[in-house]
Amino acid sequence: MLQYSIRRILGMIPLLLLASIVVFSLAKIMPGDPFGGEIDPSNTDPKYIEEMREKLGYNDPIYVQYWRWVTDFAQGDFGKSTTHKMDVSKLIAQKIPNTLFLALVSLFFTYIFSFLMGMYAGRKPYKLGDNLIASYNYIGLAVPSFVAGIVAIYFFSFQLNWFPFSGSVEVGLDEGTFQYYASKFHHVMLPALVLGLMGTASYTQFLRNDIIENSRKDFVRTARAKGTKESTIYNKHILRNSIIPLVTFLGFDIATLIGGAVITETIFTYPGIGQLFLESVNTRDYAVMMTITMLLSFLTLFGNLIADLLYGIVDPRIRLD
After folding, report:
1. Gene3D superfamilies under this entry (predicted)?
2. Cα–Cα distance measured from residue 222 to residue 210, given in angstroms and rounded to the nearest whole number
């Protein structure tokens, strides 16, 4: 497994290099630049703007700009944000804990609800409960996350006043206190529920279909013929095989949830990577925008590796060569 992991990690290098070319090219073909989108020429000397563009190398040939960026990036220098006037690494370090907290809580909700609904629907297919779960899945696949977020804010924040509709913590609380962490959990609950519950549909359906398929296989018939309890058959024999598709998704969720948080964080005004990325696109903050995109690319490749490694843990019959 160690040799397999090393080979996969080395294989990420050319893929990340290719991703860097695509990311840089897409950023540069966007109209405007940080100064044209951020600074009003009416109250700023145009000569100063042109000097800043020259100083930052925006007038250099594209291949020169790319080589400078990718070599600095490889050395851990992600550049400086033109909007926030600080190093990108420090800026992301401030925002990413909120996004990771949101992703983990939403992932918890996704797997708990999809596991419970998938198990129930798989054990009792084509019954009323299965049909209700299927209806929920169709709604979850059809309704966009931003619509669900707006509806959730209207009912649970404005009408019922159960959850706050913006921010990540109540203003004025001392960091490290119980009230501080309780407030952070209270603020993350609603966006995490929206992000998590809207992602359960595919998980639930995959688990349900796998349970139904595995329940018809020969090893299950053999277990029943031997008099094995039905609960043991489902919880041990069938579930062990059916849980593999969920493990497949787990690796990809590392990047998917952070990427999906772009819309959710914007709707809930939640200060994380997603909101920062959308802001960087609007202000043409190239350094922030390209760093976050490369981060998501790396997480996608890393998540794929994690999923493959988890195969061998869940089912020892799967060997990684």
Report:
1. MetI-like (1.10.3720.10)
2. 18
Phi-psi region of 44 (alpha: psi -120 to 50; beta: other; left: phi over 0): beta
Please identify which residue in the block is written with the tokens 């997480």: 299
Q: What's the pLDDT score for residue 175?
A: 78
Contact by Cβ (8 Å): 271, 100: no
Domains with residue ranges and CATH for the chain: 2-74 (no CATH), 94-314 (1.10.3720.10)
What the block records as the tokens of 44 is 């700023």
Residue with tokens 């490749």: 301
Q: What gap in Å lies between CA 32 and CA 58, rounded to an integer? A: 11
Rg (CA), the chain: 24
Nearest to 195 by CA among 161, 136, 144: 144
Contacts of 276 (CB under 8 A, 6+ apart): 91, 92, 95, 288, 292
Query: How confident is the model at residue 255, as a pLDDT?
Result: 64
Residue type, 99: T
**Shortest CA distance to 109 belongs to which of 1, 197, 13, 232?**
197
SS3 of 196-250: the string is: HHCCHHHHHHHHHHHHHHHCCCHHHHHHHHCCCCHHHHHHHHHHHHHCHHHHHHH
